[in-house]
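Thread: adenine complex, take 2
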Amino acid sequence: MEIRIFTIFPEMFNGPLNTSILKRAQEKDLVQFKLIDFRAYAPSKHQNVDDTPFGGGAGMVLKPEPVYYAVETELGDLSRYEGKIILLTPQGQQFDQELAKELAQEKSLALICGHYEGFDERIRALAHLEISIGDYVLTGGELPAMVVIDAVCRLLPGVLGESASPLSDSFYEGLLEYPQYTRPREFRGMMVPEVLLSGNHEEIRKWRLQEALKRTWQKRPDLLQKKELSAEEQRLLEEIRQEEHDGKDG
Ligand code: ADE
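Output below.
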């Protein structure tokens, strides 16, 4: 997948894109990143990418020309661009795992990071999609772009490696993750659950599924409402409810 990032702060991406999994994904040529500084496309000699708002008011507004020129120079004829042009903004569609999966199917992504207090409304017309990473306002679209990139890239085939391809993305879909343990078996009196030491794969599978259901039910009941539960999941959830009702759950 090729991912182009349009930003006036390309240096912000150096750490996240060149560390750990994303670094390895580039080395394996599973993803290519290109940072485009739209300051280079500013219309004036002084390279101003922002200006005061028409109608008055505080703050500066990102001008349309640098963004349009940068995107058009980079992507060519936009009507033939085989990818998604995405604008990061708090007004966008809320980013979630479902959207990450959809974007992971694309050949190419172009992420436009807004900055300063706002951007000229006409910039919206460039984008196929607007994405928000949550109901809070950041200083720019750079961190949201990194969040989107990270969530999408880990879903690309080969990025996590076969053994790591997360169960949570298929079987445990829509649930919070079950608890994980590693050595030692006991730490400060806290024990690893016996079932995980049993070697009984079927029992372990059931336990993990039930724990994932329990956590989701306790911490994020809204997720359960969205999920279609299998017969087994419904039965396990019923057990959890019963246990809680009986006061056995610690
Ligand atoms: N730009 C500023 N805040 C943002 C947010 N929450 N999501 C996406 N882009 C943003």
